[in-house]
């Protein structure tokens, strides 16, 4: 269904778009309507047949990524998601990055021995915990990962009909909408982290899995 001509985003929705460096011109012209007893997929993966290909946003700034997909520090004050062993990995990363500068200058490609799962734990803690608790890791994570990417779909309106499913692929997915309507028995399902921003939402039924449910509901609440 095509959005009504001449009806631009409301001021509140325009501010949400600005947070992601988007304008009215970036919003999909057609509303996203999931028919009854149907499954619609939104995914950035080439292995999936996505209803719409996403807009890919990239940044080298972990703080910018937190603003896009993370949780505000005020909502998770004092929350740290890394353990003692992972803190030891950060110390090893510091040494390795110092070696990178010397070896790169000599034309030698350094081997990365730090456990990737530990680095990801630090990144998750920065994004979904209190970033001040792991602030020392920020420059090291940015140097190691270089660029961060998210998949984003902006719509004026989204309707998930009765008995239907709107499913997201893996990874960091962002769904923006001026209005989200989920009929009885309709579901939104994600296998990765997901955020939905909406001005108005009717919600007789809703399923969100697995990450960050409380934060998603806060965004949807009017």
Structure summary:
By secondary structure, the chain is α/β, with parallel strands linked by helices. The protein has helices at residues 11-19, 62-69, 84-105, 116-128, 138-145, 213-220, and strands at 32-34, 39-42, 55-59, 148-160, 165-168, 173-182, 187-190, 194-197, 200-202.
What do you see in this structure?
By secondary structure, the protein is α/β, with parallel strands linked by helices. The protein has two domains: 11-59 and 148-220, no CATH class; 74-145, no CATH class. Helices cover 31% and strands 23% of the residues. It has six helices and nine strands, in the order αβββααααββββββα. The strands form two sheets. Strands 1, 3, 4, 6, 8 and 9 form a six-stranded mixed β-sheet that branches. Strands 2-5-7 form a three-stranded parallel β-sheet, with no helix packed on it. α2 crosses α4 and α3 (84-105) packs across α4.
Q: Count the helices. How many?
A: 6
Low-confidence stretches: 102-111, 204-222
Note the main sheet: 6 strands, mixed
By oligomeric state, this entry counts as: single chain
Total discrete domains = 2
- Which shape, going by the Cα principal axes? elongated
Overall pLDDT: 78
Record field, number of beta strands:
9
DSSP strand content? 15-25%
What percent of residues adopt helix (DSSP H or I)? 25-40%
Whole-angstrom Rg: 20 Å
